[in-house]
Amino acid sequence: xxxxxxxxxxxxxxxxxxxxxxxxxxxxxxxxxxxxxxxxxxxxxxxxxxxxxxxxxxxxxxxxxxxxxxxxxxxxxxxxxxxxxxxxxxxxxxxxxxxxxxxxxxxxxxxxxxxxxxxxxxxxxxxxxxxxxxxxxxxxxxxxxxxxxxxxxxxxxxxxxxxxxxxxxxxxxxxxxxxxxxxxxxxxxxxxxxxxxxxxxxxxxxxxxxxxxxxxxxxxxxxxxxxxxxxxxxxxxxxxxxxxxxxxxxxxxxxxxxxxxxxxxxxxxxxxxxxxxxxxxxxxxxxxxxxxxxxxxxxxxxxxxxxxxxxxxxxxxxxxxxxxxxxxxxxxxxxxxxxxxxxxxxxxxxxxxxxxxxxxxxxxxxxxxxxxxxxxxxxxxxxxxxxxxxxxxxxxxxxxxxxxxxxxxxxxx
Length: 413
What we know:
The chain has 413 residues and is α+β, with helices and mostly antiparallel strands. The protein has helices spanning 48-53, 74-90, 110-123, 134-142, 179-192, 199-212, 220-225, 227-234, 240-266, 284-287, 305-315, 321-325, 340-349, 371-383, 393-399, 403-407, and strands at residues 4-9, 13-18, 26-29, 32-35, 43-46, 66-67, 70-71, 99-104, 128-133, 147-152, 157-163, 166-167, 173-175, 270-272, 278-280, 328-331, 360-361, 391-392. Among the domains are: 4-32 and 70-139 and 371-407, ATPase, nucleotide binding domain (Nucleotidyltransferase, domain 5), CATH 3.30.420; 33-64, no CATH class.
């Protein structure tokens, strides 16, 4: 049986690896560049090669083949994909034997599907190919059939409900703040603290900061609202009265305590840049997440992510709203920021009915960065014996690139 690889081309990173593995073998920056070092002058570099060439070497221009889930440079994408397939050849796998299932961005257009299918067969000569929708793969990865997908992308956040395994795209909505906006705001905050970032190396520093130092804290409004509970948490006394009070506030107490622990752990961190310079990053650790909940901070006029989620839920049928708010599935690397689920819990509490149970799927671990990729792997395992979910070379030659619209994976069932 030919090897099946799962591909996901993201605005920030691309994931590529065998369907039978626990994580993608190749997770690399979705960028291409040109090396300017004399002995390698004008040599094209990709992904991790750019990271290797940063030390004392200028690599420019940095080009992203995709932006916010939209394909913007087909020539660069072809070169980038060619680099990926060379990696499989290094593993002893011939391109003509490759089967590829692509985790397709919801912002792809029909003509993009056709062009990508054509490139895979005509340019690279692979054996089989197909597209599956990213939200569907995320749903499969969560092992749930009804809930709410919140995909925090590069330039926008997509909120999409799903019911009994079917994505309800027509009820979904976009929120215009994404990971790139938070990164830009973080860069501004860092500048105020004397840390000046630029270009690709600065982008790497920001991503490191987001992954290892940041957390979503409670703002002044929430701190005032829950001041009684916070006083209980901060109190050194642990008598029976305090214990009973803690039990009575249940999940509120647990989540508040966790957020305060994050604050204590990370607020006084010392951040070290690539040059070894050290910076105190006090309030920056939590401030930069605020645009998700208060977009006005960065000049946006819309309400926060919590309001978008609330509106999407209210647009759905009354009988499924409880299931949606109780099963919120986050995806995207920004969703890994510590405390983000807890902060959203408190924001949503003010918008949903008092008796509604707010729940989140999964923990903010590394797998959220390739959540839909894992869903593609599960698809491969479920349907591996019946390869009808893939378009083979013979079918492509007979039907043409338009066949991709008939075969795209739309539902779990």
